[in-house]
Amino acid sequence: MRASMQPGRLTRSRQTRLLAVALLLSVVSVAGCTGSSSTTAARPAVATTPGVVDGCQGCYTPQAFRVAYGIQPLLDRGIDGRGETVTVLDVAPPPRATTTQPPAQGPNVGDIRQDLAAFDSMFRLPAAPIRVVTTLAGAGSPWQASAQEAQDIEMVHAVAPAATLRVVLLPVDFLASAATATADMIAGLRLAVSGTDVASIGWDLGEHFFTRAQVAQMHSILLGAEAHHVTVVATSGGNGGFSDTWFGGTPVAEVSLPGSDPLVLAVGCTTLMVNSYTGTYVSETVWNGQAGPSEFAGASGGGFSHLYARPAYQDGVPGISAMRGVPDVAGDADPQAGLSIVFAGGGQTSVNPDQGTGAPTALWAGLMALTDQYAHHDLGFVSPAIYRIARGASYHTAFHDITTGSNKQTLPYPAGTAGYQARPGWDPATGWGSPDAQVLVPLLAA
Q: Is the pLDDT of residue 94 over 80?
């Protein structure tokens, strides 16, 4: 563990970071994507093919996502997450200023119940129970939700449609200061791993940012989750090889917590291509949206911890170092090609691709719910089993090995370039790759 801690950067993706300036109110429309929208009285057009939604470039249907990642055969067998609870950690949007305002504050804030109902209606999914925990955020408007919350919940629901959905809300002033961010992250993690089977953490903060005491506190919470057989899935970040600045300071090459803790399944980011008509998997590469040499545009987080030594389950992995390597696995995060997310804020129902680091994290959280149901018990800490499978004969049937692209990002002096090239097997850009769930889930459950 480093003796000195430097400012880090809390991230979800490049798009999310830019919108966080406005108190984390995320606009559903993404540059370059055309969303289909209408008044809430009307229903947006359903896709005419199994793969994509008409009028929404890069919007994959849940059916396409399930086919591409091998989830549909499990659903056909009744493995749909029933009996399992998946918790996502998100940030509460700002409260309404007056009671005379309309039900939603423009296009950026909606009601999570309406969002989910619109999603279910469009794609003919069953309704799911949902609970919101407002212990940290306050109980003012528990159902009021940002598009980020909607996309995390809808991703879990698409993968595990019968699972109970649970949201833990962080305070709206989450990013008010460095002290607020770290304290709320730890408090939110504690709540997220309590009363659940799987926890999905799509937020991250560079390792340098945490004090020794905070690192120990977070690890203690994760030890408790392990003892209670809770699977904790967290993003590996969205800055490539960097943890860029949020509260000031220079970007540094490092990985982020909680994903770099060895008790967490860390999830990287890819760009997924599917057949538009069938949803069949076509190809996948490392997600890296950098637009130029002087700015972050989002890339799969990865690298090696400065705090944690290499855990035993990573011993002997080609390309690993003496320190904990992340990510472990990966999934689609590209805002130009992602799961269709329905948002019913501001009197309109809009459809756009899911985006950023929360998307693959929620994907894997949903998969863990399916695995728990398949096994008839909670698996909890799954990383050793993930690595045993990936290093065995079933690797290329249980995973899509991502071998093209890199998560390298370049910043002006003095930051430079940081990141890694994808290669066969494990790498610090996408880990072992993305899942073929019809093979992976039974192997994990066994």
A: no
